[in-house]
Amino acid sequence: MSMSSAPAPREPGVPAPGAPSPRAPRTPPVPAPWTRTRLRTAPGAAGALALLVAVTVCLAAAFPLALDRYADAGLRRAVEQARPDRTGVMVTAPQPDMGLPPSRRAAAVGPGPMAERYRRALAAVPRPLAVDRARSTYGVRTVRGLAVPDPWLPRPSGLPAQVVLATPYGLGGHARLRAGRLPRAPAAVTATTARVEAAVTEETARALRIEVGAEIHVPGVERPPLTVRVTGVLAPREPDGPYWAAQPLLRTPALTPEPKSSGPEADRYWVGALLLAPKVAPVLLGTGGLPVRYWQLAPDEDALRARALDGLRSAVASLESGPGLRAVRSATDPAVVVSTDLDDVFAAYAGLRDGIGPLIAVAATGTGTVAGVVLLMAGGLATDRRRAELALLRARGASLPGLARRLAAETAVAALPAAALGLAAALLALPGGRTAPALASAAAVTAVACAALPLRAAAAHRTVRAHDPRRDAVAVRPSRRRTVAELTAVVLALGAVEALRRRGATQGAGDLVSTAPVLVGLVAALVLVRLYPLPLRALARPAGRLRGAVAHLSLARAGRTSASAVLPLLALSAAFTTAAFGGSVLAGVADTRDRAALLTVGADARVEAAGPLPAGLPDRVRRVPGVRDLTAVSLAYQATPQDGVGTVPVAGVDPAGYAALAARTGLGAFPADGLARHRAGAALPALASPAVAERFGTARPFTLRLEDGGSVTLRVVLVRDRTPAVTGADFLVVDRSALPAGAARPTALLLTGDRIDGPALDRAAGDSDGTSLLLRSRERARYVESPLQTGAERLYAAAVAAGAGYAVVTLLLSLLRAAPERAALLARLRTMGLTRAQGRRLLVLESLPPALLAAVGGVLTGWATVRLLAPGVDLTTIALATAASPVGEAELRTDPWSLAVPTAAVLVVTVGAAAVQAWWSGRRGSVRELRAGDAR
User: 548 falls in which pLDDT band (50, 70, 90)?
Assistant: First the structure.
């Protein structure tokens, strides 16, 4: 019997025949980092977010930088426009004590002690006020003019000319020699020195007929007259600079009236300055000109900063009467007096800044709100696009804090470099401003951009759900928390509007006032969201009975909250209110300046002379390019009533032409036949201002004596507040042909026309002596005195433009949010027979209700915002920057273009985007959109 062999024993570790060989151990795979994976998966979304953050950070950082630049430039312009004799700090000390020995008195005014006191005075000036040492000086001068007996000096009224003696330091560095040389000092100078040398400026030499080598004898006190020999004629290097203009008499002689006489026929005499070397200062002590020591300090305009305005004002007040004055006295002389008008210049600028600042804050708040909403919407869009992914992660056990951290890191990777790039661009484009506000603005924008996605995702996925419930604006009822929040916003908006109307935007009503337009827009958005379902419910039933399904389906789709959320409406409402308010401000500023220029000129241009105009002047002016019409007027400003009390301006005009001019300019239009005399011998009809009509009455004639000696009897028949020929509250207008021949000759021409050639008009009117020319365009430009005004206008225009741009982005984000769902819907409907034309109509009709809601609501909100806030907004400061306004208070008025343009833009962008989406979806086909897992 055969037996099978037993299997041979196996060694441990040796596999049996036919058994699979063991595999080598594998290293577990390292998962790719979350952030890198997400950026590679959606590079377009990351790039779009980076671009949005970079632009927003750049704008946010540029705003405070630009505001600082404009404010600093405005402060420097205010100091530049003020005369140096007002902005300079003059430190004056009397001559040394008369009881001191002559040697000590002479030493006290010598160059060494004066220079030492000058250095100590500079050190005593309190910060932040800085002194421009290059344009400051010191010296000794006489304050009383000394009559000189030299007969060759001009004597207009027979009175001898007077001179003042001065020893300004640094004369050679601030003037050029026109003739001769600079004065020199003798070896030893005392109060009794007999002869010294001096220089004079070109203007002094020309007016007093002084030449090089001339000798002027200045009377002394208890000593013989001082002989001053002129060795040079100087031309100031910077005639309007502080060195010369702070004491204008040293540069320009003055024809001074004799104190005992007055009126136009007063006796006059010349007063000029003789400029001596600083070492000659002791000789001034021997004259009767009351010599004083002075240290003339010019502020450093380049060092002026608007942010330090409070410190600058405190420094000036300290110098005038405070610790600074004590420091200057201890550094120079106990009897020192400090005088300056720099505090008045700073106060005027502070008033301008305080008047403009709140208006800028309104624009910044509105644009910032729109930008913030756009960033939140960008986070919301990313949350909606990744809803399925984030819901799956939550279902698999991802914690809410961990998910938020991952999303924050993912967003920060794209946002932080973009924010740094935007901040760098702002700092490079606008150097010189404070970096701290720019950094704070950039950090705030970056924080909002980084936190938008994590917070929205955490709020949307705080509860783990298998699917999202359907949300319809028609069916959803607002919660109690939302109602409380909305009522709170309404209360805040009402409080802000009431505060603005009571106190005004220029009276520091607080931050709540600057947010008033935004709060009004927020309330409008909340109200619109509440009212939005009502028309949809009203239209749903009639649309359901229509033959086609497009209208019914579009209304049903329009009720979904994806296209009618609060954030898009808030952004659009804020953009509308900012555009309406900003556009109204800009339009109001332009209208105010136009009106003020028109009231000043009376027409588009004005040529006026003190006496009758030359016979050929009207023909020359009429040929100037741009002149369309010309009205001749005879003006008598000193017409005297019969009672002899006061004077009344009388304008003699051609009734027909002047009535057309008044109607064209809107300055007191009247019928031309209203000034016609109906019967011979009757009183001449006159148009009068209300004040003149009240003074003379309208029932009885009255007589006026004209400037040429003739008289005229008038009776007031028309009363108007204004008239083109005369500015002011008192005037009379009569028919020129009825005046005496001497009074009827034209003295002024009022011109109308588009774009009158100013240089050509200058040449035409400049041929006549004594004529003055006013051009409306030049007068309008004169009202823009400060860069702070132009800066505020540019910032407002930029804020309006940025708000409009962000509004467009808001619309696009709102449409992108619903784009996948719309594309899937069109794909499914096309499989059921929907044509491409019907698809386009469906998307357009679906987008129209929210677009119309935003457009109509935005127009009403903008109009209501301007009407509500107008009583508290005065545009006079930003428009004219002067205390005296010829137009009174400049009110805020609604600008139609600011309402019409955003409305049209919203409708065009919305409908255009829907049409483009329908066209693009038709080109892509339906297969891709119908895959499993696509949007619902």
Answer: low
- pTM for the complete prediction? 0.78
Is a pLDDT exceeding 50 seen at residue 933? no
What is the predicted pLDDT for the residue at 928? 54
The pLDDT of 452-462, averaged and rounded, is 81
Q: Are 746 and 632 in contact (CB under 8 A)?
A: yes
* E-strand stretches of 590-709: 605-609, 629-641, 648-653, 684-688, 702-705
Task: Give φ, ψ of 289 to 5 degrees.
Answer: -90, 15
Torsion angles phi and psi, residue 276, rounded to 5: -105, 165
Buried b (16+ CB within 10 A) or exposed e, 445-454: bbebbbbbbb
Whether the CB-CB separation of 271 and 256 falls below 8 Å is answered with: yes
Q: Choose the weakest-confidence range: 117-131, 472-486, 515-529, 703-717.
A: 472-486
List the single range of 698-707, 712-721, 809-818, 892-901 with lowest mean pLDDT: 809-818
What are the distances in angstroms from CA 251 to CA 93, 247, 254, 646?
Answer: 22, 8, 10, 40
What is the rounded CA–CA span in Å between residue 734 and residue 714?
A: 8
Two structure tokens written together for 69: 């630049």
Chain-centroid distance of CA 43 in Å reads 41
Pull the structure tokens for residue 343: 């505090």
DSSP state of 611: S
Give the DSSP letter of residue 130.
Answer: -
pLDDT at 628: 87
Query: Distance between terminal CA atoms of the chain?
Result: 79
- Average pLDDT, integer, range 886-913: 76
Provide the phi-psi class of 705: left if phi over 0, else alpha when psi is between -120 and 50, else beta. Answer: beta
> Which pairing describes strands 195-201 and 268-276: parallel, antiparallel, or unpaired?
antiparallel
Could you give the count of Cα atoms lying within 13 Å of 577 in the half-sphere of its Cβ?
33
Rounded Cα–Cα distance for residues 11 and 18 (Å): 16
Give φ, ψ of 726 to 5 degrees: -130, 135
Check residues 79 and 260 and name the one with the higher pLDDT. 79
Q: How confident is the model at residue 203 (pLDDT cuts 50, 70, 90)?
A: very high
What's the rounded Cα separation, in Å, for the pair 324 and 121?
Answer: 10
Q: What is the pLDDT of residues 375-384, one digit of tens each?
A: 888 887 777 7
Distance between CA atoms of residues 490 and 485, nearest Å: 9
Q: Which residues pair with 711 in a beta bridge?
A: 705
Contact 663, 692 (CB under 8 A): no
218: phi then psi, degrees, rounded to nearest 5: -100, 125
In Å, how far are 457, 536, 564, 565, 861 from 531, measured between CA atoms? 28, 10, 11, 13, 14
In this structure, are strands 684-688 and 748-752 parallel, antiparallel, or unpaired? unpaired
- Mapped onto helix, strand or coil, the DSSP state of residue 187 is coil
Please state, in angstroms and rounded to a whole number, the distance separating the CA atoms of residues 160 and 158.
7
Asked if residues 132 and 242 have their Cβ atoms less than 8 Å apart, the reply is yes
Token pair 């909403």 is at which residue?
A: 373
Which region among 304-308, 343-347, 472-476 has the lowest average model confidence (pLDDT)? 472-476
**Type of residue numbered 651:** A
Q: In the Cβ-directed half-sphere of 611, how many Cα atoms lie within 13 Å?
A: 7
Residue whose pair of structure tokens reads 């002075």 in the numeric block: 294
Strand pairing category for 146-147 and 748-752:
unpaired
Rounded-to-5 percentages of helix, strand, coil across the chain: 55, 15, 30
Domain layout of the chain by residue ranges: 87-307+328-340, 350-595+785-930, 596-782
pLDDT band at residue 205, thresholds of 50, 70 and 90?
very high
Establish how many alpha carbons lie within 13 A of residue 280's alpha carbon, considering only the half-sphere containing its beta carbon.
26
Tokens 């560095």 — which residue? 173
Nearest-angstrom CA–CA distance, 871 and 558: 39
CA–CA separation, 727 and 601 (whole Å): 8
